[in-house]
């Protein structure tokens, strides 16, 4: 799935990054840029910078960076397409339908139509098995309606829907087998749970059998509009019910649990689609909640599942609370038996998941020093997963208390350098400063000026590998008449570029900087090839060849002089 580069250009031109981010972060002007507390890691001194002029943000603490689109993706947990749409809507920009691959819109509408039909069918269904199932699982008409639950039974003909779509779209939906030119619906005779995107579109289905046969659930496969790793069931609704000082989201294991929680007033509740929680899930949860409460069965399997999810949260510097239900219960059965007050009461027993784990480990090794030492090493590794240094300290303190180990010696075993590493990765070499300044200045100059600037140098002129790559793409984009700020989203150079654009500039005027640094780059390049030619000359035995090389060197020297003259002119301005 792809939105055309020109649509993205329009969005980036019109979305003011300063206004956008100011809605979420308090920013203060500092020099040419704005500065505030990073929304992506916790900090006390602001290291999050925004450049209005260049349309980018960068955090020197955690390395988060990008443009308006990346900000919306990171902040709201949207994918690229949804972030573009969010901005388009906000700023009243039309993304032309034709510019998105047409089948993607058709995929959405195919899912929508199937969902609507299936819901209508379940509400009208005379099928005894369906009625029994709904009764047994206590799915009321209201809940069916709210959650877009459906059913496509044997007698239902999907032909009226399918005839509107190309074969390509039907196959890409992954919902059908094709046999002898006709399609059969993979989830027929199953209760259908509609899976929604964050913006509320139907993007997939999960189908449950009516009896106990296997497989119990069949899900849509991964498609252009659906990825199981990123989807939390009901998040599109739950995110609207997290208000309050501490935004809270419950995470449960199944669809029925989510639905029952909703019915009993816990609307801020989500679940995965039968998978373990992924790092993507944890990142999305962190965006929408200040507190996550995992609800698990109190049996051995439930406790293990809770512990298994610890690492994905630690990697996001976000530790959930966990609440175990009585053995053999899930939220669905618990609420039906005991009601919502019982759950509110039980919630008083929730525990910080990492603390719980530390205590469990401590208990396991009792007075065995060998075990203690081994587990301490394991725990240190877990603490090292956390990026946020304050959070690291908090848990180290906890471990030192529980294990009666000196805090400072414990701290030595933990890697505090992650955040620093991100900074060092792109630390600039003094030698190449003219290249950095040149590239950086390009991003605030008008297009006609750019075209004039780039007409006589190519990527070979650059020494720094990243600058080579960026420059090559800049030229490519300009020739295609695409706004170069799109490059901030580039998977290869995007991070480096947005960081570069926010480094302190050595010059106030971007055109002056571009010109000055371009001449420096040209001179460096000419010096380099002059040296190469001179080496070649030294090796050459052939007089004719020597003459040729000498004349080439002469040309290079003349060019170099020309650039040195121009450089002097600019410098004297
Ligand atoms: Zn940060």
Structure, explained:
By secondary structure, this protein is α+β, with helices and mostly antiparallel strands. The protein has 26 helices and 16 strands. It has 5 domains: 5-97, DNA Primase, Chain A; 102-226, DNA primase, catalytic core, N-terminal domain (DNA primase DNAg catalytic core, N-terminal domain), CATH 3.90.980; 235-349, Dna Topoisomerase Vi A Subunit, Chain: A, domain 2, CATH 3.40.1360.10; 356-423, Pheromone ER-1; 430-571, DNAb Helicase, Chain A (Orthogonal Bundle). Mean pLDDT is 87; it is low at 418-428. The structure holds zinc ion (ZN). Residues 38, 40-41, 48, 59, 61-62, 64 line the site of zinc ion. One of its GO terms (molecular function) is DNA-directed RNA polymerase activity. Monomer. Interacts with DnaB.
Largest sheet: 5 strands, antiparallel
Strands in their spatial order, largest beta sheet: 1-2-3-4-5
Q: Helix tally?
A: 26
Uncertain segments are 418-428
| CATH class term of the largest domain | Mainly Alpha
What's the count of strands?
16
End-to-end distance: 49 Å
In quaternary terms, these chains amount to single chain
Please report which band the strand proportion falls in: under 5%, 5-15%, 15-25%, 25-35%, 35-45% or over 45%: 5-15%
Ligands in the model, by name, code or SMILES, are: zinc ion
Q: What is the mean pLDDT? A: 87
Features:
5-stranded antiparallel beta sheet; alpha+beta; 26 helices; 52% helix; Dna Topoisomerase Vi A Subunit, Chain: A, domain 2; binds zinc ion; DNA primase DNAg catalytic core, N-terminal domain; 5 domains; 573 residues; globular; DNA Primase, Chain A
């Amino acid at each position: 799935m792809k939105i055309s580069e020109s649509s993205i250009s329009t969005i980036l031109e019109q979305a003011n990054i300063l206004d956008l981010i100011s809605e979420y972060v308090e920013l203060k002007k500092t020099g040419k840029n704005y500065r505030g507390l990073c929304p992506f890691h916790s900090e006390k001194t602001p290291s999050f910078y925004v450049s209005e002029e260049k349309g980018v943000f960068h955090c020197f603490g955690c390395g988060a960076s990008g443009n308006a689109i990346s900000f919306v993706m990171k902040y709201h947990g949207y994918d690229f397409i949804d972030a573009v749409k969010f901005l388009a809507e906000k700023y009243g920009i039309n993304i032309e339908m034709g510019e998105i691959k047409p089948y993607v819109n058709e995929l959405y509408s195919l899912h929508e139509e199937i969902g609507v039909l299936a819901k209508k069918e379940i509400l009208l269904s005379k099928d005894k098995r369906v009625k029994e199932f709904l009764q047994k699982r206590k799915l009321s008409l209201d809940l069916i309606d709210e959650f877009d639950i459906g059913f496509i039974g044997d007698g239902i003909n999907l032909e009226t829907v399918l005839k509107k779509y190309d074969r390509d779209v039907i196959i890409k939906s992954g919902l059908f087998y094709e046999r002898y030119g006709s399609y059969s619906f993979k989830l027929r005779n199953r209760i259908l749970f509609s899976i929604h995107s964050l913006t509320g579109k139907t993007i997939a289905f999960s189908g449950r059998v009516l009896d106990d046969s296997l497989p119990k659930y069949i899900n849509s496969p991964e498609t252009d509009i659906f990825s199981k790793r990123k989807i939390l069931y009901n998040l599109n609704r739950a995110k609207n019910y997290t208000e309050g000082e501490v935004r809270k989201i419950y995470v449960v294991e199944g669809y029925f649990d989510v639905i029952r929680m909703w019915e009993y007033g816990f609307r801020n509740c989500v679940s995965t689609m039968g998978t373990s929680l992924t790092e993507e899930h944890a990142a999305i949860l962190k965006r929408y909640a200040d507190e996550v409460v995992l609800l698990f069965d109190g049996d051995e399997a439930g406790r293990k599942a809770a512990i298994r999810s610890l690492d994905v949260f630690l990697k996001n510097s976000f530790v959930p609370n966990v609440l175990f239900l009585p053995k053999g219960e899930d939220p669905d059965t618990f609420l039906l038996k005991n009601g919502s007050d019982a759950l509110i009461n039980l919630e008083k027993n929730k525990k910080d998941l990492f603390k719980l784990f530390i205590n469990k480990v401590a208990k396991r090794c009792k007075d065995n020093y060998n075990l203690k030492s081994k587990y301490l090493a394991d725990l240190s590794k877990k603490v090292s997963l956390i990026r946020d240094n304050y959070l690291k300290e908090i848990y180290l303190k906890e471990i030192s208390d529980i294990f009666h180990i000196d805090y400072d010696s414990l701290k030595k075993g933990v890697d505090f350098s992650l955040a620093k590493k991100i900074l060092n990765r792109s630390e600039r070499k003094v030698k190449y400063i003219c290249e950095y300044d040149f590239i950086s200045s390009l991003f605030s100059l008008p297009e006609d000026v750019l075209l004039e600037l780039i007409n006589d140098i190519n990527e070979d002129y650059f020494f720094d590998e990243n600058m080579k790559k960026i420059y090559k793409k800049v030229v490519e984009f300009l020739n295609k008449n695409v706004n170069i700020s799109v490059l901030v989203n580039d998977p290869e150079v995007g991070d480096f570029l947005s960081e570069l654009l926010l480094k302190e500039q050595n010059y106030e005027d971007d055109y002056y900087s571009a010109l000055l640094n371009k001449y420096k780059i040209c001179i460096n390049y000419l010096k380099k090839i002059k040296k190469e030619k001179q080496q070649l000359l030294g090796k050459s035995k052939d007089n004719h060849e020597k003459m040729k090389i000498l004349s080439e060197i002469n040309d290079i020297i003349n060019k170099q002089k020309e650039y040195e003259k121009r450089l002097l002119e600019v410098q004297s301005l």
